[in-house]
Amino acid sequence: MSEKIYVFGHKNPDTDSICSSMVMEKFDKNLGLDVEAKRLGNVNKETQFVLDYLGLEAPDLLQKVEEEQRVVLVDHNEFDQSVEGIENAVIENVVDHHRIANFQTKTPLYYRAEPVGCTATILYKKFKEENMTIDKKEAILMLSAIISDTLLLKSPTTTDDDRKALEELAKIAEIDVNTYGIEMLKAGTNLDDFTEEELINLDAKRSEKDGKKFVIAQVNTVSIPDVLKRKENIERAIEKEIENNDLQLFIFAITDILNSNTQIIALGKETQVAEKGFEKALEDNMMFLEGVVSRKKQILPVIDKNM
Amino acid sequence: MSEKIYVFGHKNPDTDSICSSMVMEKFDKNLGLDVEAKRLGNVNKETQFVLDYLGLEAPDLLQKVEEEQRVVLVDHNEFDQSVEGIENAVIENVVDHHRIANFQTKTPLYYRAEPVGCTATILYKKFKEENMTIDKKEAILMLSAIISDTLLLKSPTTTDDDRKALEELAKIAEIDVNTYGIEMLKAGTNLDDFTEEELINLDAKRSEKDGKKFVIAQVNTVSIPDVLKRKENIERAIEKEIENNDLQLFIFAITDILNSNTQIIALGKETQVAEKGFEKALEDNMMFLEGVVSRKKQILPVIDKNM
Lengths: 307, 307
Fold this sequence. Notes:
CATH architecture of the largest domain in chain A: Alpha-Beta Complex
Largest sheet of chain A: 6 strands, parallel
Oligomer: homodimer
Number of domains of chain A: 2
Strand content of chain A: 15-25%
Number of strands of chain A: 11
Number of helices of chain A: 11
Helix content of chain A: 25-40%
Strand order of the largest sheet of chain A: 3-2-1-4-5-6
CATH topology of the largest domain in chain A: inorganic pyrophosphatase (n-terminal core)
């Protein structure tokens, strides 16, 4: 078996995946393990804001692992979201807050999952359980992850454990969570650099029901009108996507993370599914959904049920 | 969803599966949950010794679960070792010390696994983390499970965590662990009352690799020759089991718990897997494995790797 243990989050890493792998590295080093945080993809703008704030470098990119490589997974477990070669690695530890699927090991391991809003919330509890000191740097990495995953505690995935962890981490970090958090979230919502084709694919989830294929894509923003300036081109990109992939419905959800609302653009043969599901008419292909921020909890189930 | 949550260990329950489900019931009740321990099969003699010692009844038998039944698994995770209907149950929590395989959920959950010798050792840590009082009854349930799974700390699966837990639980229980432990282990090794069909199913773990099904069953004894007196009938029972369940390999491990050795009987189309894995020829379908006592650490990985 290899010497060094690699710790990493999922592909297309978000702030939780990067920050939690860095914090987990620290946790395991405290236990005397020879570990190194890695990343499985580019650092996004929100995460870069956190790293810049702390004057830290991102972990190195990991493209694949050799057989028998010892690894620790954070913020994911499904092999298709993990590194190339994961099937033949030795998974020693997992810390995660997702369902478990497409995952297996050959040997016993540490596995810690909790149905909370963020992996860093579980890491915070692990530090407490082991009576390990949390320094300012780790506190900011963890609170950034929690802010990102819970949209400043506004997402319906937020639990009391997340609230408590964020509160106590903010004390250690001596930081105003709201000011810092809004700045961080804003940094992640600059969509100007993306073409419309890229925009509708940035975070697109494909689904199927009774043979009918549909896509729900989502972008976060601090200004819905800003995104809607490009509505015509976005619609053209969506129409092309519908045609190329034989989709019945494409929902593009533009989520205002400051006010916790979502504007959707719906196109395709089955747009009445959205109208029926949300009990609201589309106007100009658009519908405004007050209080809706979570695709997983608030959009997908409604569409899936009415499709 | 159902009201009551069921907690149970694996099929063919051993002392850890029964005792840990009873202790987990207590733990979850302390958290205010409406839980009830269940068992997935007959109570073995060793476990009955523990229950008699404490004047307790075994949990009720659970034969299958309805869709959406809320469940907590202890001491196992693989669906083929679990209750009928587990695929459509809502698994809310798992506490286990085995590898993870043939397991998946639709939603996020609590999962706590550690590569220690016994589930009860993890439960002991959970009580400590939550600052919950452990009373004498729970202490004896937990220490019995640890003695059983680690063969009084002699199995190579034993970790420092198990040693520490056993030591501290013995203090709470005010019990001499060696005297109690040997009595308990002996109570479990009287195999005379069992038919050969029962013997090979007393503690049988089913597994699958690349579509090939195999079983590794284990019995503990203080005299291997005593068990081998029934070899012919045991082999006949195994052959029937292989035919009825379309198995590629059946390994029956007879473990001498006083001297820490194992005699295996291997039958099926894939017996060469055992020969290759242990680098030893089968003679008369048998192979003597010196120093081998742990199915999980010393037998299953060898078979799984070579299957």
